[in-house]
Amino acid sequence: MLKQTIKHFVSRLFATPPSGPARLSRDKHGIDRRLVSRHAIKVCEVLNQQGFDAYIVGGAVRDLIVGLQPKDFDVATNATPNQIRPLFRRARIIGKRFQLVHVVFGQEIIETSTFRAPASGETDQHGRILRDNEFGSHEEDAARRDFTINALYYDPLKEEVIDFHQGVADLKNRVVRMIGDPETRFREDPVRMLRALRFQAKLGARIDPATEAPIMRLASLVEHVPASRLFDETLKLLTCGHAMDCLRELRRSGLTKSLIPLIDRIFEEEGGEAFVEIALSRTDARVRAGKPISPSFLFAALLWRLVQKRWTTLLAQDVQRNEALIRAADSVIDEQMDKLAIQRRHQADMREIWLMQARFERATVRSIWRMMEQPRFRASVDFLQLRAEAREVDSVLAQWWMDLADSGDERRSQMIDTWQAGHAGARRVGATRKRRRRRKPGDASSDATPSRDGAPDQTA
Ligand code: ATP
Ligand code: MG
Predict the structure, then answer these.
(1) CA angle at residue 221 from 220 to 224, to 5 degrees?
(2) Closest ligand relative to 195 C-alpha
(3) DSSP 449
(4) Which residues are known to be catalytic?
(5) Which long-range contacts (CB under 8 A, 24 or more apart) does 421-427 make?
(6) Could you tell me if the CB of 146 is within 6 A of ligand 1?
(7) Which residue's alpha carbon is at the smallest distance from atom 4 of ligand 1?
(8) What are phi and psi of 249, to 5 degrees?
(9) d(CA 270, CA 244)
């Protein structure tokens, strides 16, 4: 505890260069003002007119400097929430412990927060901060941020970047460097370890050796972080557009053990890593195309190989097909919950996606219609594509279901009728191996008979 406190003060002492922050002009930081949200500029203007300091801060400044499109724009100011709110027509104060203001412009929300001080002493036994809600100076606000590249302030009126910790140089050199003493700061908030890996992958950067050094040793501390925060940061990591790189780094640094330990086992299975890679490269492609990502689909894909393995084992023990899949799915979900808790609604969706996989190959006319009514039908068909790409199921079968999912009602009826009549793609839906084996040579008509030997529809 004493060691922690001394470390804390030493890090505070060295947190800010005594010469004060660097003020970088346009030619040094290179931000094109036209790419900055006009609403964020407006918030800064209004606050300035009232005599306050206000800057765009954090991820937006970082991303603009390296030429990425920011996800959102945050503003930091020395005005308090009660001073900020009345200045805007649509603004609301949010947060209980630390209040900040959401200034609303149509679809865009500019999160506007008052400069905050670094956490004062109160921590748990591992050094994790329990309270972090005091207003502070501009300099203090910079010191409490995680990495130098995230502590940059852009003044859109002067087109100047204020840099207390040589963040612009680190950004240009693609270095993720902790502000202050890395170990203390990881202990204060262990999700910073996940954030370091995320920015490394997202920016194609490296983690500064002193920042990286304690990560392996401290990895298990993420287990003490409240579940919802940990889930959010893990999800951000897997949806940053470089998911496979992030996952490899997670494994290398020992963080998967405390987050998704089943992944380590999946990577050891034959073809396990390949399946995860296919799933994550699709996720990355969607992220880069600006499409939304469903957390349940992502986790369903990450854990599928283990579900499948347990399913196969149970089938070999003569457990009925659907029952075996239900048991396999439940055991994987239960085991995952020991570490990173996935919210119940996502769990339910994952289960639905998995259980539907047993039905595609054995569908009957009636079950096809019922399957289409399930809320996760589309996601389950997408999942089937993954499995086809991994050569786990027939790609013609997967395509048939994809076409069905993409079609309007009329075409759907036709397709299902065609399937009854035994057309090529459809034949695969109905025809099980057993059935084909029974077919007599030359008896083409048996293809035209709808399959009646699909598995009982227990999951409906
Ligand atoms: P993204 O592009 O994912 O939004 P970001 O850097 O903006 O990345 P946010 O979670 O939106 O990340 O946080 C905004 C800013 O708040 C960060 O840039 C950083 O300055 C600060 N911050 C966020 N999380 C932490 C943390 N755990 N510890 C210290 N500072 C943090
Ligand atoms: Mg952000």
Answers:
(1) 120
(2) 1
(3) S
(4) 72, 74, 146
(5) 421/448, 422/447, 422/448, 422/449, 422/450, 424/396, 425/396, 425/397, 425/399, 425/400, 426/400
(6) yes
(7) 59
(8) -65, -40
(9) 18
The single-letter code of the amino acid at 16 is: T
- Kindly report, residue by residue over 201-244, the tens digit of the pLDDT: 999 999 999 999 999 999 999 999 988 899 999 999 999 999 99
Q: Answer yes or no: is the C-beta of 150 below 6 A from any ligand 1 atom.
A: yes
For ligand 1, say whether the CB of 282 is within 6 Å of any of its atoms.
no
SS3 content of the chain, % helix, strand, coil (to 5): 60, 10, 30
Burial of 274-286, coded b for 16+ CB within 10 Å and e otherwise, reads ebbebbbebbbeb
Tell me the two tokens of residue 103.
């200034």
How far away, in angstroms, is 74 Cα from ligand 2 center? 7
Whose structure tokens read 């004060």?
20
Mind listing the pLDDT tens digit for each residue in 265-290?
A: 888 888 889 999 999 999 999 998 88
For the Cβ of 59 lying below 6 angstroms from any atom of ligand 1, the answer is yes
- Which ligand sits nearest to residue 237's alpha carbon? 1
Do residues 340 and 223 touch, judged by C-beta distance below 8 A? no
**Backbone Cα Rg of the chain:** 27
Q: Which of 142, 151, 143, 120 is nearest to 133 (CA)?
A: 120
Query: In DSSP terms, which residues pair with 55 in a beta bridge?
Result: 76
Q: Return the residue whose CA atom lies nearest to atom 11 of ligand 1.
A: 59
Tokens 């004493």 found at:
2
Residue 175 pairs in a beta bridge with 206
